[in-house]
Specification:
Elements: H1 11-23, H2 26-41, H3 46-52
Helix pairs in contact: 1-2, 2-3
Length: about 55
């Protein structure tokens, strides 16, 4: 992965991502984490609204 120049992920966030990743079926991990990160980056959209319910 090309992450040159990126800041480190805060420890607490990394811990939660790890917990979520380990609790999901292997085939769903990538999709779920992509949706979660997308929801954290934007304030609008159907994915963000569904996660906030």
């Amino acid at each position: 992965m090309l992450n040159k120049g990126c800041s480190n992920i805060p420890r607490e966030l990394g811990d939660w991502i790890t917990i979520l990743g380990k609790s999901l079926p292997l085939r769903a991990v990538g999709t779920c984490l992509e949706l979660l990160v997308g929801a954290m980056l934007t304030r609008s959209g159907f994915v963000t609204q569904s996660w906030g319910c």
